[in-house]
Amino acid sequence: MKIAILGGSFNPIHKGHIKNAEEVLKYAKVDRVLLMPCYKHAFGKKILPFEQRMEMTKLAVEENGNPRLIASDYEKQIKSTYSVEMARAFAKDYGPEFLGLIVGTDVLLTFYKWRYVNELMKIMRLVIVPRPGYPLSYLPKDAIYLEHARSLPIASSELREMLVARDNIAKHFIPKSVFAHIKKNNLYSENAENKIKMVSEVRI
Fold first, then answer.
1. Share of the chain above pLDDT 90, in %
2. Domains in the chain, CATH or no CATH each
């Protein structure tokens, strides 16, 4: 089976993530795309607990309805911190015919900083999706560049700012079920950190 993994903090997951996954299914000809929230974050950024981000990922995938998109809690299962740890374990556990790691052209700017990046690229082939405003700077060895794929110009950081400001424009960029979950649980409000303990996370 050919599998590609789209990892990230998903804080929150949004329509841009789902669009990237769909574009990979279309152009990379893989059988499954796993949307995999990171368990921890090496740069110490503040994010919601894993359980909340996993729940939002499940809701987004269920709402999309494509059976080839899978919400995966694999990083929590193995308690991984770095992408290379996830790659080693996943390849050992499942040994797929093809294992790809989906990244945007924006990620390539700092990809060289990732831990054991050469080993990572031996285990997983990069599947690169164009990101608006970030032209392809270079093409890593054996990487697959989906030049015809299209991305949405959305960033989770911008959506969080909108949600804190109670700007309802955010709802146009977030799956309906995820937006409802955020509102119901008051996940991104000015005093959210007093209600839900934030944790440190990483996706490298």
1. 83
2. 2-201 (3.40.50.620)
